[in-house]
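hiii, so i know i said id send this last week but things got crazy w the move. better late than never?? heres the sequnce for the chain we talked about at the cafe, plus the structure i predicted for it. fair warning i was half asleep when i ran it
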Amino acid sequence: MNIFSWLDNIGDAAPQQPPKPRKRNLQQHQQVPTPSQSTADTILDAMSSSPTKRLRTEDDGGENPKDQEDQEDKLGRDEERTPRRWGSGRYSDNLSKRSSATSPSKRSSRLSPSKRLAALEVATHEPVVVTQIRATDPRMPTELIAMVKALSGFQTRLPFVPGYLAAEIETRARIDAEFSDFHPSMFQLADDPFVPHLSLDRIMEVYEAATECCNEGHAEATWNTLIHWPVFELALGVIRGETLERTSMPADGAQRRDHPVRVRAMPCTTARLKDHQQGAKMVDFSLFIEPQGLDADKINELRQRLLYINHTDYHPLRRRPIMLSAESKRPGEGYQEAQVQLGVWQAAQWTLLENLLSSQSATTRLGLIPFLPALIIQGHEWSFAATTRSGRQTVLWAKKVIGGTDTIVGMFQIIHALRHIAAWGRDTYWPWYRRAILQMGEEDLIVAEAIHTP
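okay and structure toks below
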């Protein structure tokens, strides 16, 4: 039994109490009744509940579901620690009405994220622990250390701005202070022909939108629509159902080609864990591999016994292997909640990968990939995170800042970091997935590469 099936079998953390008779002149103070079960297993009901998130292009004038969730979390913390007077009975009536009108998952979602994280650490099935990214931690695999080191380089010394933009940026810097932070060492000498061409005007549009969202206090859905998703598109290109054109000729005259292994991003705010449509934890974006040719055929063979190849039954991802998941929050809000969501989400992904491997012959079975990358986005700030697997325990490593949309330089850092992570997906994750999960032998790989070669 995994953690998600187990959660479904846990009873309510806060069973209803029989109504108490009202007493007009009761003078003594009483505590709000606490749950009869105090174990971490009972608290874990909170981890399979969250209001449905939806991507909106603008505020619709109604209450933001994420704001409501934050208010409920605050209410839960207040109820847990604040004595209440029963005097008129009004508070007990309101509590009873809320309990009867609210599902168990709604009630448990009022627990603070810190308590849910604490419960995850000691969960009976597949616990999740959160720890700081630190290269000296012996639990941190060498491959993850290398990734963090590379991402750190983009913040300090390595070039991350396409060289074809150098002249335009130099010209703008003479009249616009926003470009004063650029210096020659930031520009790449050679451009990657397999990445989308960047338009400085488009980058400025997203930058201005980020300023608007921050200054005017826009909702998370607006940040996702106007800022976060456009940044993914700038870095990786748009979602397309068919193979991209092999060549294109942008204004700089450099020839662009579609990489034979395509990594794209997708908004997935309504994606749910398999068999947990009601209240399962969600993420906002996923990076996935777009299988083609023989790879797509192998995926379809796998889908004959596993309809959805990921840990979610979100239809657009039914045949596209997820390699990274990202959760977004408003500026300065919900960081621990994002950790809960990513931890539970990627724990399910690890379980699926392990189950797929365990179904194979022991003589040909490969080991797990060293880590699964993730992102936590808080308003302007983008941070790299990752999970690793140790037995049944998932370790969430957080966080390494990779850039911010509050500066133009920061936007280029994010774009370059996303492209670097996507390259890891092409060069490391996908070859492992083909061999370990799709069980493609050397002959299959040779045929696939021949088909994909331009």
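btw The CA atoms of residues 281 and 345 lie 7 Å apart. thought thatd interest u
miss u guys!!
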